[in-house]
Amino acid sequence: MARRTAQRAAIRKVLEEAGRPLSPAEILQASQLFVPGLGLTTVYRTVNALVDEGWLVAVELPGEAARYELAGKAHHHHFHCRCCGAVFNVSGCTDGLEDLLPKGFEMEDHAIVLYGACEACCSKLSGSPTPVESSANA
After folding, report:
1. What percent of the chain has pLDDT over 90?
2. DSSP 92-127
3. CATH class given for the domain over 6-69
4. Location of each CATH 1.10.10.10 domain in the chain
5. Which residues of the chain form CATH 3.30.1490.190?
6. What superfamily would CATH give domain 74-137?
7. Cβ-defined contacts of 12-20 (< 8 Å, 24+)
């Protein structure tokens, strides 16, 4: 069992209140409001421990570093804002995915990622979104 520390408590609080998957950098930034001296190494160590405990799961997006969200959520997909880089949960799932499979294929699992601009970015922009660089999200 892991020790209860202010750093771990801050990281848990941030993840519980986020309501969406967060990158380690986002976790760090939000957690530093509670523990100003918190470092990225501690965030990674804590996130890895919380994944090992089954409290968190990694959200893998193509070409992106993993984000993390609370485990135990109902089946859902994700929306990735190409402007700010944030990832949001999308409730539910579409029917008929099996109809897309080639004849004779069997689907075992699926993940759907929608891309575009989130509400906050749409309201800030007066034109088409400017994609962020993938390396800025790592």
Report:
1. 72
2. S--S-GGGGSPTT--------EEEE--HHHHHH-SS
3. mainly alpha
4. 6-69
5. 74-137
6. Ferric-uptake regulator, C-terminal dimerisarion domain (3.30.1490.190)
7. 12/50, 12/55, 15/50, 15/56, 15/68, 15/69, 15/70, 16/70, 18/69, 19/89, 20/69, 20/86, 20/87, 20/88, 20/89
d(CA 11, CA 7): 6
Q: What phi and psi, each to the nearest 5 degrees, are found at residue 55?
A: -85, -30
Q: How confident is the model at residue 1 (pLDDT cuts 50, 70, 90)?
A: very low
Indicate the pLDDT class of residue 57, thresholds 50, 70 and 90: very high
Q: Write out pLDDT tens, residues 66-111.
A: 999 999 999 899 999 999 999 999 998 888 899 999 999 999 999 8
Q: Which two tokens stand for residue 50?
A: 């919380």
Distance CA 121, CA 100 (A): 32
| Dist CA 100 CA 118 (whole Å) | 28
